[in-house]
Amino acid sequence: MTTELFPRSSALVAAAHDIGKVSPYFVEKIRRNCTNGIAEISPMPHLNPALERGWGGHAGVSQVTAKALALPGYIPEILGQHHGYSPPISGLRANDENFGGDVWQTQRERLVDALKIALEIDEWPKLTSVAQARLLAGLTSVADWIGSGEFFEDPKYDWQSQIEPALDAAGFVPLKIKQGVCFEQIFDFSARDAQRQLIEMVNGPGVYVLEAPMGLGKTEAALYAAYRMLEQEKASGIYFALPTQLTSNKIHERFSTFLQGILEQGQATRALLLHGGAWLQETEMGEEGRPGGAWFSHAKRGLLAPFSVGTIDQALMAAMNVKHGFVRAFGLAGKVVILDEVHTYDAYTGTILDALVNLLRELHCTVIILSATLNRERRQQLMGSKVEEDGYPLITAMPNDEKLVEVPIPVDEGQDVRVSLIQQEDLAIQQALLRADQGQQVLWVENTVNEAQQRYLDLAARCQEIGVACGLLHSRFTVLDRQTIESQWVNLFGKQGWSERIAQGRILVGTQVLEQSLDIDADFLVSRFAPTDMLFQRLGRLWRHQDTPRPSASLCEAWIIAPDLVAAIETPTKSFGSTAYVYSPYVLCRSLEVWQDRQELVLPQDIRPMIEQTYQPRDESGSMRTWLEELEHGTRWRKGRQAMRQLARITLSEKGNTLPESKAQTRHSEMESIDVLLLRSIRHEPEVRCTRLTLLEGETLQLPWDQHRLSKAEWRQLSARLMRQLVSVSVNNAPQALPIDMLRKIGLHHCFYLGRPEMDEAILRVALVDETDRLKGVQGASVHDKDILEYRGDIGYRVIKHQGQC
Hints:
Elements: H1 2-5, H2 10-15, H3 24-33, H4 57-68, H5 75-80, H6 101-119, H7 130-147, H8 163-169, H9 183-187, H10 193-201, E1 206-211, H11 218-231, E2 238-242, H12 245-262, H13 268-274, H14 279-282, H15 298-301, E3 307-311, H16 312-316, H17 325-332, E4 336-340, H18 347-362, E5 366-371, H19 376-383, E6 394-399, E7 405-408, E8 415-422, H20 425-437, E9 441-445, H21 449-466, E10 469-473, H22 479-492, H23 498-501, E11 506-510, E12 524-528, H24 532-539, E13 557-561, H25 565-570, H26 572-576, H27 579-582, H28 585-595, E14 600-603, H29 607-615, H30 622-633, H31 641-652, E15 673-679, E16 681-685, E17 690-694, E18 700-704, H32 712-723, E19 726-730, H33 740-746, E20 765-769, E21 775-776, E22 788-792, E23 796-800
Parallel strand pairs: 1-5, 2-3, 2-4, 4-5, 8-13, 9-11, 9-12, 10-11, 12-13, 15-20
Antiparallel strand pairs: 1-6, 6-7, 8-14, 15-19, 16-17, 17-18, 20-21, 22-23
Helix pairs in contact: 7-17, 10-11, 12-13, 18-31, 28-29, 28-30
């Protein structure tokens, strides 16, 4: 597989990426940055190294040099993009005066000849596809990062002896897989029919889709199929991609148990480190992967580990024209890539996802797609081939270079679920309190963070009065708070909490994060109305396991807060409220038609027909025709599906400008998000050249202004602690941006990537939380021009509109 993906002479491309450093502007920059100068180099005071930005610095010189040498297709671009983006070299030539003319170009050509001799390579590789070019570009960048690391800083040491330790420190460690481990040994239960069938059908790189009901064990089936691929040396690792960070965190625990079961003794600890957050502190990957570098991020670096759990967003960027997108492609190549909850993605994300699946197929990946509620049209798009079968559960398999196969799986008797659609929210609140007072575990799912926060506030005080626990979980908590809440509440609603379950009733309020990939089990469910597939996902958290201990009064029942169908069709925005801004009014109305007369469901038997009934194309008239046209073509306030697909295609285009990661949107249905660092206080201490930071929980940290004050390992540890104080919010709701120079004076550039030097404003936002939980600006700066911002450990990041605002 390695020789098919990487031509034998690939090393020459990686070795030549910096040939552009043989240029007058770069040499002058080096001379000026050496404290005592360099005697062998004559000063060139007429040159301004800052002008290098006009052609992308030495990377641009590398690209024009490669073009002048007439290197094979894709290679000049690979050399030019090794810093993550295409340099602006249009109209420039290698012998231009800025690059030193013919004299310096001759020296660059001599350097290329010397590299060929040193590597004993005569010819450049011939690349046959864009996918292969992205792969080699990723190899080149990662090799550059590792080569710039601490293992090669001291010329006194023999560099060749440092290669193996450097690769090991970066996480590229060959791991030994146990042979002949059965399903029951890993998961402590026997495989079901659908699980066995998938395991048998996954026999090589290709695309495989498992559609099965919530709670069947799709995760275990995919993991064991991945193990079989590793055991047969048909894959090099596993990337498990989930919809949200919350679900990623919880899958970590199950993934850890799985790794301990498949790796040889003594290797499991290393593998667990590589897929855990500690990797940031323990691994070394050169300049770009250091604290303050763009890739000092577990979400990004996890793609390069042999085993990792992460979000779908990082995988999607492997197919996008985004900075270092090709590094992500390199990290995924040859692995088993498991994509969970694929049905949740919209037209924009779906277009990118289709491109990702095609790319992964070309990169010899084994793609396993898991879904409980995938409709036929979407499955056909993912497979890139016509599908026929409507059975459920269903496995659709298309190994590389083979025909598509569809295998329906027989099911036993279904689970009866009582369903009540109600319009009065206060009745639902009363019922939730009543059920919790009986000792039941109640799950309440809202469609927006703001509504979830308000429901929590409505319920929390009343819960305390009757001795019922109440919690809140959504995406707007700091990393530290989110992990604490997850650990407590997801465990209480899962198998780990069975011994404590009967101690008291509980109400857990949350958003869509609760409907995806979590093994939680409620006795009673309340949900805001949502599209059919989303509702089924939420019902998958209700009476999930037959042997879960429950109060005797419990019934398998869900209350869904929904408007009147006639009113909804006429005025969906008024009827559905904020939900109509999260989901398409047309899809909501089609879903409500399907659900309005339902009082009982049988799962999984009702899933396929109700999904197809919701999404089956049909001619419309009256108001429904208006909402369908808005879905397709958009409005003043919302882009339609056609526009979203076109926008997605633009992000995939190799011809446009490379997007910075902060601008790369993988989900158009969400506003652009940004990280906010929340602290209690920031105090400059110039006498000791540091800044004292007080964290939300009261702990204080010293942030030195001078990088040499701490070792690289100490910087990694400090940065990892600060990253736990981050919360991700939409740009509109974030504190105002601060100048990069202000954050550099605090010392935050040592720990966070603040953006490219030519930017005025930092991509990291920073705010202080006072004793009343209100957010304040740094050094007296305004925190927000319209709204009041708050942060509480139990509620999270909250936006309070000023009176008079909508």
